[in-house]
Amino acid sequence: MRRRRLRWLVDLMRDLPEPVRILDVGGTAIFWRNNRDLLVRKHHITVLNLTASDSNSADIAFVAGDARAMPYFQDGEFDLCFSNSVIEHVGALEDQLAMAREIRRVAVRYFVQTPSRYFPLEPHFLVPFWQFLPVPLRAALLAKFKIGWMDRQPSYKAARAEVEQIRLLSVSEMRRLFPGSTIKLEKLGGLTKSIVAMGSAAS
User: Fold this and answer.
1) What is the mean pLDDT of each run of 10 residues along the chain (203 residues)?
2) What is the distance between the alpha carbons of residues 181 and 110, in angstroms, rounded to a whole number?
3) Fewest Cβ atoms closer than 10 Å to its Cβ: which of 27, 62, 84, 135?
4) What is the CATH number of domain 2-118+166-200?
5) Which residues contact residue 182 at a Cβ distance below 8 angstroms, ignoring those fewer than 6 apart?
6) Phi, psi at residue 197, to the nearest 5°?
7) How far is it, in rounded angstroms, from Cα 108 to Cα 78?
8) How many other β-carbons are positioned within 10 Å of the β-carbon of residue 21?
9) Across the beta sheet with 107-115, what order do the strands follow?
């Protein structure tokens, strides 16, 4: 699925002028260095995270910032914004709407992937249908146990914050976040595992 997803990305940037200016929201340098064979066009990448944890190189720059508000970037500053499994981590729907607006503002085109809310196995906690359990129950469990990829939290308050920070999205919500976009569904066993929104700021 990842290889197919990257082919979609290459197709989206195929006719953009070189060097393609890419903003990766929440990504890593390793991702781009491991996939240089698919990025056949000349490019320059800016990676945005809450902290800039790497040093700049000739073709990758690192910026500390918040995806929900990126005033340091101009309208249309980037040819393409790429974001993989990040928008479900920014908080409530209002936060996700803010991130989507900023992506559509700063980039001419965008490619945003997120896990589907309705895939049975929740991808962070690795518990079937975890996302549909009441928040207080999820928080209480995470305060007592390491669950999936998520470490046990030192208190109920910390566990609740961790639980509420992840909000999986549905197809209809992705359409709302990215109006006019092309929505592609990645399937596993006939079920939608993840959702990709591809489009342009003009759409």
Assistant:
1) 80 89 93 78 90 76 95 96 96 97 97 97 97 98 97 97 97 97 95 95 67
2) 9
3) 135
4) 3.40.50.150
5) 197, 198, 199
6) -105, 125
7) 6
8) 19
9) 60-64, 43-49, 20-25, 78-84, 107-115, 191-200, 182-188
